[in-house]
Amino acid sequence: MRTAFQRAGPVVAVAASALVAVPATADAAAAAASPTAVCGADGHSYSVVASSPVKFSSGTVAGTVYLLYSSSKNCVVTVRTSYTGTATFTTAQLIIQNGNTYVDQGNYNSYAGPVRGGAAGKCVKYWGSINTGPDGQAGANAGGGRMSWGNCG
């Protein structure tokens, strides 16, 4: 079962010392799942409102990070298109203006998230990363998302 944790303030880079061991048992079943299905596991109906490629510095795309919205929550999922089937360090992050930061990170086979949070009347940032190694330090790191405030409402 995936677990997400909440931080009190914005997180731009996720430190390797903050690793959370989370079993990857749900990865195989969700590998073919859409971001709307992954976020919608909580019973809400989500729509994609923004997405960004998760790229290495070379420009190679490793996946996509999605920002979704339901009538009461935002949700972020990072879906890998490279290195699928191999557990590597992957993150999904939702930052709420004047609020909390929600992060899911771990060694996953296909995606990180969902991370969900209410942001009524506030703006959000979202970010995802994919590393080619299992610990967030070894290998190359790809990142993507939006680190400016948007999707205000």
Protein architecture, described:
- The chain is mostly beta strands.
- The protein is built from two helices and nine strands.
- The protein has helices at residues 27-30, 35-39; strands at residues 5-7, 47-55, 61-69, 74-80, 88-96, 101-108, 111-117, 124-131, 141-150.
- The strands form two sheets. Strands 1-6-5-8-9 form a five-stranded antiparallel β-sheet, with no helix packed on it.
- A hairpin with a 4-residue loop joins strand 3 (61-69) and strand 4.
- The longest helix has 5 residues, at 35-39.
- It is globular, with a radius of gyration of 14 Å.
- The N and C termini lie far apart (31 Å).
What's the structural blueprint in terms of helices and strands?
Layout: E1 5-7, H1 27-30, H2 35-39, E2 47-55, E3 61-69, E4 74-80, E5 88-96, E6 101-108, E7 111-117, E8 124-131, E9 141-150
Antiparallel strand pairs: 1-6, 2-3, 3-4, 4-7, 5-6, 5-8, 8-9
